[in-house]
Amino acid sequence: MDIARVLLIALVVVFVVARRFGGRPLKDRGRLWVLPAVLVFVGVGGGGLVAPAHPLLSLVLLAAEIGVAFGLGLLMGRAMTVWREPDGQLWAKGNKVVLALFAVSLATRAALALLGHAVGITPHTGALLLTLAGWILAQGLALAARSHRIPAAV
């Protein structure tokens, strides 16, 4: 794993965590796809997603990582506090449940990486970026779905 990828992952994680817990306006749903798309592009473009010694097992592990991350992302998006300001702008902010789910996300990712390592699959940054993309996208989708149920400002 080169230093540029480590820095990219660290920056994305800091950005996402700061936005989740600092409170942020929910903006155009069209932007919901931008960061996940960039992460997928970089993750796939970097190669190394399939371990040559264990191609099927590495794909199964990658699918499990993305599936778990997506599921936890949906839960996080549903658990976030969402409200509408008097000016009509929707806002979202993380809470204790979101913090707990974030910890579960980290622990699950670590456990799956250790499982992969135990069977001879070296963790690759591309897999982490795809997992992070699924996690971020799921949160955005859950928040977008919830935003329709928040009554308009009067």
Question: Can you give me a brief rundown of this structure?
Answer:
This protein is about 65% helix and about 5% strand.
Kindly describe this structure.
The structure is a single chain. With 154 residues, the protein is mostly helical. 66% of the residues lie in helices and 6% in strands. The chain has 5 helices and 3 strands. The protein has helices spanning 3-21, 34-45, 55-79, 96-118, 125-147, and strands spanning 24-25, 81-84, 90-93. Strands 1-3-2 form a 3-stranded antiparallel sheet. Helix 1 runs parallel beside helix 5. The longest helix has 25 residues, at 55-79. The chain is elongated and about 55 Å long.
Oligomeric state, counting identical vs distinct chains? single chain
Q: What is the averaged pLDDT score?
A: 87
Largest sheet: 3 strands, antiparallel
| Global Rg | 17 Å
Strand fraction equals: 5-15%
What's the total count of β strands? 3
Strand adjacency order, main sheet: 1-3-2
What's the helix-strand series? HEHHEEHH
Give the helix/strand class: mainly alpha
* Helix count, DSSP H or I runs of 4 or more residues: 5
* Head-to-tail CA distance between termini: 52 Å
Choose one word for the global shape. Answer: elongated
Low-confidence stretches: none
User: Share of helix among residues?
Assistant: 55-70%
